[in-house]
Amino acid sequence: MGQSKRYFESGGDVSVAQAAIPSLAGVESRSETTAIPRIYALLLVAFLVLSRWFVAPAYLYYFDSANFALALENFNPALHQPQPPGYPLFVALTRLIDVVLDDPQQIMLVAGLIGGIAAVLVLLYLGTLMFGRAAGILAAALLASDPVFWFGGVTNEVRIFLALGMAAICLLGWRALTAPERPGRLYVLFAAIGIAAGFRPIETWLLMPLALWIWYRTGRSVSRLLIAHAALAATTLPWLAVVVWSSGGPAAFFHIVNEYANSQFHDTSALYGAHPPAAWHMALEALGWTALGALVWIWAVPFVRRTSLRGGWRTPAAFLALALLPPLVFSAVVHVGDPDQTLASVTVLSLIGGALLSRLLAGFDSSRVYAAAALVAVAHISSFYRPPFHLAEAASYGAVRNVDRMTTAAIRAIDSLKRDGPVTIVHYGSPVTFRQVEYYFSDDYVVALPGSPVQRARGSTFTYFQHRSVAVPAGAAGKIGPGTRRLICLVPGNTPDGLLPGWHRYGPVFVLDKPPQSEVNIGEFRLIW
Question: In the chain, which end has fewer C-beta atoms inside a 10 angstrom radius, N or C?
Fold first, then answer.
């Protein structure tokens, strides 16, 4: 019992930490404290692979997924291949996977698995380093099974790298903080931020407060700060130059990014002019999705006394606060549209939860720790399949299943209808996005009408025609492709049949055979032969 207790309570890179954080002195040697349980790590990897693979949708999940699939052939943020600001290192990773796999959905899934496995294993090591093996084991279990992390791993895999970037920077940051006499660690930290930003550019801003605080705590040397920023520039400028060049130059790049930010943020962020109710709703979403995974451990907070946090708590608390607050504030105030956009803060909360639960288990043997890890994983799995509150439904198995069912039905219906000859596909408010339709039917004419049959858009609109947007006045919508023998219209599932007179329903789509040689009216729009 005594040996097992020491095994799980030891932690911290304390062989060099005493100079920076004297309160951490007196803990076991680094070689004894940082080894991670290999069998447990393999079990985590197996859980991640199996849980994601069997839940993953059959086709590209949403708009962004199709953008990344298009970027496999032509990287151009100006064409939203992928969407701005470009995510060049993630595209590079998917292209490497593309050498082995030729299915875009599987390519994205494997990329998400690579990032997810790395994030969980890094967090396992980080938790062990900061708070002991029990904390590392529990933190890794919390993140691996977190509903939001699970959701991101099967829907929009690039966001998994928010978790990996946060875990990796926290690990490198803690090592730099506990070894102020080794400035190379600070330089590696700043260089790693540039790499993380190549996967998710926003991470430069989310991670920089923590990095600057670490620099301040480790000597405040101006020369070290300059070298650190040079390291950051060395890992940022290469991929940034590729993005800018692919977008058409600096002016075009900044225009594209600015327009994209305005289009994404203006309806929900008060900073971009959104109405207070919408801004307040976005803040609630940010808090709800971030805290979803914390429900399984938040009850432990009142039972953990500050004196039980071995080695002092102020420095780790400040470290974790500076890691948690920037992404949480960004999500609440600037932008969050989907649950997995909160994964940077979710990762920090998983580490905090692992540390708190490990304090409750101090003195217990290893079997109790692994049992607790299994219990929190089961609780998270339950939340993924049975969301505990309304906002959690957006990060649930039900959300993945519903989108997958609609997408699969629409794509298979169009595939079947195409067998009789060329078609023109009209997208009119369907939850299956026009970008998915464009990707899977790139040889056909795709016309995207603004709004929906129930809530029609008015004023200036955009019609998307084979991956290119052309502004047209309301009431004119584009041409029916030459040779077309059949029109297919994708609309919301609750659209009444009478809204499209003369069309017949074929599964989830409407079909018009042998269209007239003049024009076809769809709502207030017309398609010209």
Answer: N
